[in-house]
């Protein structure tokens, strides 16, 4: 065993003879999640170069950093981007509550269209810029590492002729993983992401899941693939399927694991590395530690609605404040809006909190969260039960996962009263099952052969060492959908069966006729 | 990263506070493959107790060992077992060549029946023996570790109320993995084991694969599951599905990996740990090393037909000897029969050879093998191209895998001439592509996050630590086959569609009639 450990440690330390990694641009929590892997890659002697657009909320090429940056100009202004996000949040959190299904659908489609248009503008400034592409080619990169949420990395990897590693949280109803990555996802026990279903479904839920998959596939086909196919074909000068190019990715690093997600079929080139960014807690700033310690045995509650939602309506903020005021715990609330009325002496508001360090603090009893994957993973890592106030995107679905695993209670912002929020926090603190369940998830999270970050780094380095990972790629990629499901074979067997039945029937009827006619002839003769 | 490595090393070394592992009886290469894992478990402070039947070819409870033994008497004599194996080998290697398909089928079915009967006799002496079951219950084992090729471990685990970990090479057409373990295996790109197909199939091959799956499923249903269901139900006193019990296994350690097998869908509780028994080569005995060194630049060829086949017919042995005599290499041949005529001075015959040490010797140029998985894995581990002379069981299929990956040439014993064998050996030595391909497989084998043995040990210990691994188990286990494939949902949608079409049609025809009758009335009125 010692020999194997030594071999393993050597392998981990050996790759230090520097590879060159190109990182596709991204933003928001996607960038937060990518950074720890890139930091580790730099620690291990690799050169990391990040493509950074001139319009980015989280990436900044002028900041001093251990990464190299490859900036590129985009024709989308920061104002436009901020306005788009604000509008999207307003729609997702508030407007959606007062709209008909048709209005919601139309508005949602509008957002996807704008988003797609804006993504293509970004992509255009990379693959159609001679300067950038020349630089990237000259860079002789060993691998392109990308979160495919910002499309085009597959096209760029193809043009540069280098392997591609994806880091992905999810696509709508697993459309990309299923259709392009060939990941099996039987709708009977793999709930579509954002369907708010679990892996235990009754008939009506399975029906809804099938329809959900089908609907999302139609939406993706019409709003994304069609546009991308057109653009890719134009750039490459030959009919090109964007989904096929995406399917050429060597490794898909999926940012979930069986602590958070429901177990499901996978493929050899899909690695589940949820919780990449998690790390032990560091000590808190002195002032904050004092406040935390003042909570005594009651402990503290950590409250954040994530990096996107800065403010709430005054009414909602006041209601939340008065709910928190009723808790015996001290509360640390990340909030940038005006000070709400009725804020209790037990609650302190902060522009920013060291969320991971707070969640890892022994005094922490509960986490009130918007239900983003990063925050949930920190809570799982440290074993803190949750109260979810999901806002948009995958957040409601994420909270369904945590509720199904008995580690959280969800409060819907629309219907939330100060009593229901207070009761929810009290429940996850006082009902011991929540703590027990989240501790079970925490054990699952920690008790695996390799930490998620090391596993992600291993497969990126593997792809560099071996110039790809073709041996992990299933032949399903070469089959049409009806071949994949053996429908042509079944149709053939059905035809053979029918033919046999037909021949049997004809033979019988022929014999029967012969028999009858003989009898008739006999009778006539008689 | 250092922190993670330390954590990992600590984790690997931590489990030393001894669990108790019960090992199900097995035999032949299955026992060879299990032993290294058990040795490692003992190294790590666990107590390993092995169930050993009084009739066993490879297990011996009276030998001094680091394992504890739990012997049990069986009503099958050693003579019967040896005779059965001899008859099976004679049939598989020689008789099969002169038989019609119907004769082969009947004989094969006969063998399966006898085998099943003999397996049940073994099982009976465990689960129906009060003494043994009392001892096992008193043992307070943390896990039952079993190769399911010898049935009943699932029943015993259920009766003892302990978790179950399987170590399995394969079942016929993946019947157990698919039907009981819920492992997805689309026949369009997952060739059935023993079908001699690869993952690249044209229409006729896909057709054959579908039929092969279906045929094996029928055979398994009639010859195995029916018998087992009856026996399990009798033992438990309640209707019991043996397949359902098998599906309750916490972890399936599959003894292949993507160096040997074709990539395919998997499940979170299926771990692919092919090559568990592989290890670095040790120095050869002095006399043997001298002979090997005398080969000069030409190098050596290692030749073994495995532990089961001791002799060949005189005719075949002579033919092989004269083929080997024509090689420029020195040949080390494991063979217990009479000295063949025409044996060259370059060939030495041994009753037993240190196969792994020879394959790891720098002078080794090629390996002539019967194509057993253990031998193939040693060749992959050390990067030695192969010539296969497959005999029976999975061996022909294994060689198809190695041929498809460009690491071997297969010679069929039936048609083999001394020229064809000589040419095959010369080809894999002189055509550089074979060495390159097997070296590629060797890199795939070695370049993974954890050695297969460590991974197997990790998951056995995980199961002990966590009293099972329920979080890796898909909900598909709770679905019927038509629910799994959403056929009930599709049927419902079809009915709704047909109803809608019917209503539309009726409405149209009603309107049409109304319209016509009005016109008629109008015309009459006119």
Automatic annotation (TrEMBL), chains A, B:
Subcellular location field: Membrane
Pfam families to which the protein is assigned, alphabetical: UDPGT
Membrane topology according to the record: Single-pass membrane protein
Record-listed E.C. numbers: 2.4.1.17
GO cellular component terms, semicolon-separated: membrane
Record-annotated membrane-spanning stretches: 489-512
Keyword Transmembrane attached: yes
Segment forming the signal sequence: 1-18
Name of the molecule in the record: UDP-glucuronosyltransferase
MF GO annotations: glucuronosyltransferase activity
Catalytic activity of the protein: glucuronate acceptor + UDP-alpha-D-glucuronate = acceptor beta-D-glucuronoside + UDP + H(+)
Family note: Belongs to the UDP-glycosyltransferase family.
Predominant cellular place of this UniProt entry's protein: membrane
Species per Swiss-Prot/TrEMBL record: Poecilia reticulata
InterPro entries named in the record: UDP-glycosyltransferase, UDP_glucos_trans, UDP_glycos_trans_CS
PANTHER family per record: EG:EG0003.4 PROTEIN-RELATED, UDP-GLUCURONOSYLTRANSFERASE 2A1
This protein's UniProt keywords: Glycosyltransferase, Membrane, Signal, Transferase, Transmembrane, Transmembrane helix
């Amino acid at each position: 065993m010692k020999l194997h450990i030594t071999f393993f440690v050597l392998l981990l330390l050996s790759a230090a003879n520097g590879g060159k990694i190109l990182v596709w641009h991204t933003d928001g929590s996607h960038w937060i999640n990518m950074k720890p892997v890139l930091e580790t890659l730099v620690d291990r002697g690799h050169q990391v170069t990040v493509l950074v657009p001139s319009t980015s909320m989280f990436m900044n090429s002028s900041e001093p950093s251990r990464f190299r940056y490859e900036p590129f100009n985009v024709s989308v202004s920061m104002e436009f981007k901020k306005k788009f996000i604000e509008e999207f949040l307003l729609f997702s959190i508030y407007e959606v509550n007062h709209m008909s299904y048709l209005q919601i659908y139309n508005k949602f489609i509008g957002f996807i269209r704008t988003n797609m248009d804006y993504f293509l503008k970004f992509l255009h400034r990379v693959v159609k810029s001679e300067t950038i592409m020349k630089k990237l080619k000259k860079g002789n990169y060993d691998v392109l590492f990308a979160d495919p949420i910002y499309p085009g990395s597959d096209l760029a990897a193809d043009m540069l002729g280098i392997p591609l590693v994806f880091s992905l949280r999810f696509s709508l109803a697993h459309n990309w993983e299923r259709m392009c990555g060939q990941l099996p996802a039987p709708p009977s026990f793999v709930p579509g992401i954002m369907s708010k279903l679990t892996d235990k479904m009754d008939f009506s839920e399975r029906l809804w899941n099938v329809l959900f998959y089908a609907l999302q596939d139609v939406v993706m086909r019409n709003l994304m693939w069609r546009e991308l196919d057109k653009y890719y074909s134009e750039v490459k000068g030959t009919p090109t399927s964007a989904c096929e190019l995406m399917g050429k990715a060597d490794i898909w690093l999926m940012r979930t694991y069986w602590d958070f997600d429901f177990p499901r079929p996978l493929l050899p080139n899909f690695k589940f590395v949820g919780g990449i960014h998690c790390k032990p807690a560091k000590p808190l700033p002195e002032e904050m530690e004092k406040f935390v310690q003042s909570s005594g045995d009651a402990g503290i509650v950590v409250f954040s609605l994530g990096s996107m939602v800065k403010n709430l309506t005054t009414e909602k903020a006041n209601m939340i404040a008065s709910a928190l005021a009723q808790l015996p715990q001290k509360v640390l609330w990340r909030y940038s809006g005006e000070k709400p009325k009725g804020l209790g002496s037990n609650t302190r508001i902060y522009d920013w909190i060291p969320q991971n360090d707070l969640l890892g603090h022994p005094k922490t009893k509960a986490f009130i969260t918007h239900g983003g994957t990063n925050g949930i993973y920190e809570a799982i890592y440290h074993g803190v039960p949750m109260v979810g106030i999901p806002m948009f995107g995958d957040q409601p679905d994420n909270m369904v996962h945590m509720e199904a695993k008995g580690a959280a209670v969800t409060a819907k912002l629309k219907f939330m009263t100060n009593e229901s929020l207070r009761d929810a926090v009290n429940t996850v603190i006082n009902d011991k099952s929540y703590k027990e369940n989240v501790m079970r998830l925490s054990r699952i999270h920690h008790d695996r052969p390799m930490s998620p970050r090391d596993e992600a780094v291993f497969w990126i380095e593997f792809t560099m060492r071996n110039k790809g990972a073709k041996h992990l790629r299933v032949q399903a990629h070469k089959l049409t959908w009806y071949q994949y499901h053996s429908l042509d074979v079944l149709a053939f067997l059905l035809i053979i069966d029918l033919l046999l039945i037909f021949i049997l029937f004809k033979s019988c009827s022929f014999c029967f006729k012969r028999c009858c006619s003989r009898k008739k002839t006999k009778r006539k003769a008689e």
